[in-house]
Amino acid sequence: MIEILSVTGPASVQDLGRLDQYRFGVGTSGAMDDVALRAGNILLGNDENAAGLEIPMMPFKLRFDRDMAFALTGADVDAEIAGRVIPPWWRSHAGAGDILTIKAMARGARSYLAFSGGIDVPMVLGSRSTQFRGEFGGWHGRPLQPGDVLPCTASTATIGELGVEPAEVTLARPNADPDETLVRVVVAGEYDGFDAATQELFWSSSWKITPQSNRYGYRLQGPAVKPSMPIEKRSHGIVPGVIQIPPNGQPIIQMRDAQTSGGYPKIAAVIRADLWRVGQARLGRMLRFEQTAYADALAAEAEMSAYLDRLRANVGLVEETRTCR
Amino acid sequence: MTAPDRPRISLLGTSALLFEAPGAFDLPHQRRIWALAATASKWPGIREAIPGITNMMLTFETPPREVDTLIAALNDGWDAAEGLAIGGREIRLPVTYGGAIGSQLQSVAEHCGLSIDDVVAIHAAPLYTVFALGSHPGYCYLGGMDPRITMPRRQTPLQRSAGGSVSIGGSQTGVSASPGPSGWHAIGHTTWTFFDPSWPTPAALAPGDTIRFEIEQVIR
Amino acid sequence: MPIELTDIARLAQILERSGVDTIEIEVSGQSLKLVVNTGPRMAASPTLAAPATDHSVIAKADVAGHFLAAHPWRDKPFVARGQRIEAGAIVGLVKIGVLYAPIVAPAAGTVDAVIAETGTMVGYGTPIVRIRPLS
């Protein structure tokens, strides 16, 4: 078991999401940076869908009540376990009573903690992710609070410390401005409802991530991007990544806790391979969109899968050679 | 551009696709959507086929290599779709119109050039059909609203709207199942339970069910 | 457990699949080094042999790969000359494909010198950091 000692902001239990309940109006939830959660689970030899903690604000502190391996991935944070520094994207081992402290977040927006065996909360509608709107899943359907004691199915077997290369390093975008998150998108249904100059404005602008951005959506600020004629759609399904343009012309990127349907015009949608980059983009920072063809979006997904395959194979190799020794 | 009498099919990134039927926002078109969704949900690579309002979203297990094949199948499927008549249940739902939650009742009346009583009477008159579920857990989109009380969605969506809100957005109406952000105008509220994840089917209502709003109270 | 020929074949296969260049294994006196890609040759182990009177301890790499003095996200290296460290502290990383293996201090003390240069190939036993133990 682990006990939350201190928490800032809405930290929550998340797995890869509740992907097949749209027909009941239930959105996906799940880790905003799914690549980071997968990497943490791979480091521990867990099922990649095992539930971990998503921590969006620091400081954060928890205590282990037994020996347990854990992994810390996602944002670059200043973290310590029992006084030892934990490097980024790292697995380590805690003893009973050890306290894990995360003090500051130097880059990125969300830190992930995975635990050997995963957090053992009940599966609700096929997932352990927290559904905030529906108030179910995760830990009683709510953000974590100090004093919460989360059950883990961890084995107490000791595994050595090991790190993996952060996705942002391996999958770095060429020519990306370090102060901007570059996000690939494919155009969506109402793109043609915007005139050429407005479309150009959408691509060329640097969009500021406003403080109203969260797991529901990223509300952006920049020049007003409005369709040539007002567009009012009948309500239809939407998924994380869809970029809506409400009448004020300020784009909203739908994220993991977004409503499952909407009617605002959609100018584009973030490709699945880049959604984690949005999840790690910080409030107040800038974001830019890059138009991508569907075929290239699939290639980007293949590249992301190849990175995860390499992690799996490399970590697996370490365990195999340990067994051989 | 797509011909006006042909469906519009567009990508929602790499994880889903949207099919929008041509024609009116009415029950016959919605029944064809239900039929198409029942068919498409069985196709390989499709995770779910989710009816919207005379439209349907397909979510992918894995993104299709060839979108054109899928588009052709959807077009053929739409042409072949016979209306699926779902014999649903009828639910009576008491509503308190106006008040703190239904604070937009007055602005809807002003926008439509009607009195508050007219808006309430017009809203409570029809037998509404649940066209689709969406937005948030258990929320039902209803078909059958009188176009006289149409009001465009908000310029900027509200960050938080109360659970049980009875709202109008464009030419649609619905009842929220839990508190959350909304771009619609709340004109009243109800205290019914629409969703419970522990139920065998988590949503109380399904497409094809019908709802009649009963005027419990009007707060001006 | 002696290393069997079939084990070697299997390891070579795993190496090739995972894109790792080199691996070294030591089992009860036997040692085995496999190099799959003929990429950059391993740097010869530096011969900064300490004087016989020196009681220094050496933090060594225990796996082959590229030495990283700092994490790619950090400007500051794990340790610098003159720094006090605890036994078990991470003094650097060995990058093997997408893995970062830690190099740890065998004893508490003061960092005397960071011997290896960041980016160079290191192998099993390559000295990385010299530590003056607490006395």
TrEMBL record, chain A:
<dbReference type="InterPro" id="IPR029000">
    <property type="entry name" value="Cyclophilin-like_dom_sf"/>
</dbReference>
<dbReference type="InterPro" id="IPR052708">
    <property type="entry name" value="PxpC"/>
</dbReference>
<keyword id="KW-0067">ATP-binding</keyword>
<protein>
    <recommendedName>
        <fullName>Carboxyltransferase domain-containing protein</fullName>
    </recommendedName>
</protein>
<feature type="domain" description="Carboxyltransferase">
    <location>
        <begin position="23"/>
        <end position="307"/>
    </location>
</feature>
<keyword id="KW-0378">Hydrolase</keyword>
<dbReference type="InterPro" id="IPR003778">
    <property type="entry name" value="CT_A_B"/>
</dbReference>
<keyword id="KW-0547">Nucleotide-binding</keyword>
<dbReference type="Pfam" id="PF02626">
    <property type="entry name" value="CT_A_B"/>
</dbReference>
UniProtKB/TrEMBL annotation, chain B:
<dbReference type="InterPro" id="IPR029000">
    <property type="entry name" value="Cyclophilin-like_dom_sf"/>
</dbReference>
<dbReference type="InterPro" id="IPR003833">
    <property type="entry name" value="CT_C_D"/>
</dbReference>
<dbReference type="InterPro" id="IPR010016">
    <property type="entry name" value="PxpB"/>
</dbReference>
<feature type="compositionally biased region" description="Polar residues">
    <location>
        <begin position="158"/>
        <end position="176"/>
    </location>
</feature>
<dbReference type="Pfam" id="PF02682">
    <property type="entry name" value="CT_C_D"/>
</dbReference>
<feature type="domain" description="Carboxyltransferase">
    <location>
        <begin position="7"/>
        <end position="205"/>
    </location>
</feature>
<protein>
    <submittedName>
        <fullName>Allophanate hydrolase</fullName>
    </submittedName>
</protein>
<keyword id="KW-0378">Hydrolase</keyword>
<keyword id="KW-0067">ATP-binding</keyword>
<dbReference type="GO" id="GO:0016787">
    <property type="term" value="F:hydrolase activity"/>
</dbReference>
<feature type="region of interest" description="Disordered">
    <location>
        <begin position="158"/>
        <end position="181"/>
    </location>
</feature>
<keyword id="KW-0547">Nucleotide-binding</keyword>
UniProtKB/TrEMBL annotation, chain C:
<dbReference type="InterPro" id="IPR000089">
    <property type="entry name" value="Biotin_lipoyl"/>
</dbReference>
<dbReference type="InterPro" id="IPR011053">
    <property type="entry name" value="Single_hybrid_motif"/>
</dbReference>
<protein>
    <submittedName>
        <fullName>Acetyl-CoA carboxylase biotin carboxyl carrier protein subunit</fullName>
    </submittedName>
</protein>
<dbReference type="Pfam" id="PF00364">
    <property type="entry name" value="Biotin_lipoyl"/>
</dbReference>
<feature type="domain" description="Lipoyl-binding">
    <location>
        <begin position="76"/>
        <end position="131"/>
    </location>
</feature>
